[in-house]
Structure formats: structure tokens, C-alpha cells
Amino acid sequence: MNPTESSESDPNAAPPYPKVRQCREDEAGAILTIINSAAEVYRGTIPKDCWHEPYMSATELQSELAAGVVFAGCEIDGVLAGVMGSQHVRNVDLIRHAYVLPAYQGHGVGSALLAYLRVQTDRTVLIGTWSAAKWAIRFYERHGFQLVPETAKALLLRTYWTISDRQIETSVVLSDSLLTGETARMLAERIEDSDHPCHPAAL
């Protein structure tokens, strides 16, 4: 039976329970498959000059891992159904590369992953995503994140990410705490260590 379908033989059967854990080193291939499968939703949605094929290459993933991105994975019925990365960058934590296989979307995978990562930090959590990805923005807003104003967006993206001006122009930032232009500036000035900004090809 398809694990995304309910059991017809037992209508009272409990739905599959998402199990969240840290991804293993040998799961890089599975992580890459999930990212590129789920990122197909961006095709034709984000600007054409921001789309590339594949959306993430194996080399790019290894670069992200080397830069300190740590992936959590969510299993349903033993299948790795979604991944979400976190990265300590200077004085904040970034949520990175959050993707769920299309067949498992709507099963609480993203919510379980986000909850798992949020309880592991007491620092400000920032998320960058494409401004055209309205569904992703709504998802994070439902979980208490707030869009930072345009006056703060570029500053945060330049401080905590290493991306092009074009990507800054076409992206948004969400925060788990209310950030105004002034408080974002204060956050960026309170750099607590010498970590380098992350080096993503995508948010």
C-alpha cells in the first residue's frame, strides 16, 4: 500500500507517525533526492534566472555540509520523507533547505521538523526563502514566524548569508521574534563570534 494512503482494511488505523532524527552521513544521496524533487515546485514560479538544473548539485550539498549545515530528517513508515537543515551563523541560527517529498506533503512532516529544530536553540532563528514561494511563507507564519520589513531584509541577508544581489532582491526573511529595521540592525551589530556567513547557492 502506498504509505501516503489510509488503510481501507482498518478505518480506525492510526495515521503514520512522523519520526524526526538527525540525518546520517550516508544519507546525502537521499537528502539530495528530497531537495531536488520538492524544489520542482519552484520551476516556473521563481524568476527564470534564479532557477538552475539540478536545483542543488551533489557538490553544492557537500559544500553546505562542510559549512556547518546539519540536517534533520523525518521518517514515515521507515521512509525518509523530508529534511530540514539548521546552521549556526554568528549570533543566530538559520533554518536551511527545508523540503518534503511531494507524496508526503500534508502529513505534518515540515511541522515536525521545524518543531524539532526550534527546541534545540535559544538564539534568534531566521529563515530565508523566495518571495514568490507564498506557500512557504504561509507555512512559517502559521508556526509563529514573522516577515521582517524590507528595511531589514537586505541587511540580514548580507550579514548572515552569502548570496547575490539578485537573490536578495527576490527573497524574504522571516524571524521567530519581531524584528524592525532598528532591531535588525542591533542584532547584526551584536556579532558574538567570528563565524563566517554561510555559503548557499539557495536559501
> How would you sum up the global shape?
globular
Percentage of β-strand residues: 15-25%
Q: Indicate the mean pLDDT.
A: 89
Largest sheet: 7 strands, mixed
Give the neighbour order of strands across the main sheet: 1-2-3-4-5-7-6
Series of secondary-structure elements, N-terminal to C-terminal: EHHEEEHEHEHHEH
What portion of residues is helical? 25-40%
Distance between the termini: 35 Å
Point out poorly predicted stretches. Answer: 1-9, 193-201
What is the radius of gyration?
17 Å
The count of β-strands is 7
* Count of discrete alpha- or pi-helical segments spanning 4 or more residues: 7
Structural class: alpha+beta
Could you describe the 3D structure shown?
The protein is α+β, with helices and mostly antiparallel strands and 203 residues long. Helix content is 32%, strand content 22%. The protein has seven helices and seven strands; from the N terminus they run E-H-H-E-E-E-H-E-H-E-H-H-E-H. It has a seven-stranded mixed beta sheet, with helices on both faces. Helix 5 (150-160) runs parallel beside helix 7 (181-189). The chain starts with 18 loop residues before the first strand and ends in a 14-residue tail after the last helix.
